[in-house]
Design goal:
CATH topology: Rossmann fold
Number of helices: 7
Order of helices and strands: EHEHEHHEHEHEEH
Distance between the termini: 24 Å
CATH superfamily: Formyl transferase, N-terminal domain
Number of strands: 7
Strand content: 15-25%
Shape: globular
Helix content: 25-40%
Oligomer: single chain
Bound molecules: 5-O-phosphono-beta-D-ribofuranosylamine
């Protein structure tokens, strides 16, 4: 029996797509559910096209009940990948899935993380700070934004002529290359090398 996992995403879902594609024919891992807080998120359409079940959640339920845990347990989900999911994960959910929730952040944490540091804001901040490199951080999730234990980082150069969009493109490539592999390695208890 494959391990069932869920992907949580709020946006376009390019990482979620890569994850679903990566495990499409896997005997070991199955993406069983895609969860989004936005009914019109692109990721939901991608999931439907790939035959993966979807669930849209609302804020009140997410923060004031624990229904999501029941939804996940009912599908025997053992692991959650946050792929561009913008809501803070509540403590009850962190506790229900100890060391079984990971997030991908488009910078080298602990720099350029925390509330408000998402999407283009991150890459603008990297550029403003005159950094010569950026990258990705995959980390376990706790109840604070971007503070859980890092699992994996990959780096890319930032050139003086780069715009924030250039940096974003380079970082997204790293995300697509590494995130599915890191998830697989964590689930199979392999050394995490990306
Ligand atoms: C990624 O850059 C990820 O690091 C961040 O949100 C973005 C999601 O992009 N957490 P996509 O929706 O997977 O294309």
């Amino acid at each position: 029996m494959p391990v069932s996992i869920a992907v949580f995403a709020s946006g376009t879902g390019s990482n979620a797509r890569r994850i679903m594609q990566h495990f499409q024919h896997s005997d070991a891992v199955q993406v069983r559910l895609v969860v989004s807080n936005k009914a019109d998120a692109g990721v939901l359409e991608i999931a439907r096209d790939m035959g993966v079940e979807t669930l849209v959640i609302n804020r009140t339920e997410f923060y004031h009940s624990e229904t999501i845990v029941e939804e996940l347990r009912r599908r025997d989900i053992r692991f959650i990948a946050l792929a561009g999911f913008l809501w803070l994960i509540p403590e009850y959910l962190v506790q229900a899935f100890p060391r079984a929730i990971v997030n991908i952040h488009p910078a080298l944490l602990p720099k350029f993380g925390g509330k408000g540091m998402y999407g283009a804001h991150v890459h603008e901040a990297v550029k403003q700070a005159g950094e010569t490199e950026s990258g990705i951080t995959i980390h376990y999730v706790d109840e604070h934004y971007d503070e859980g234990q890092p699992v994996f980082q990959a780096r890319c150069p930032v050139l003086p002529t780069d715009t924030a969009t250039d940096i974003a493109r380079r970082v997204l490539e790293l995300e697509h290359r590494h995130f599915p592999l890191v998830i697989e390695q964590l689930l199979l208890n392999l050394p995490v090398v990306g």
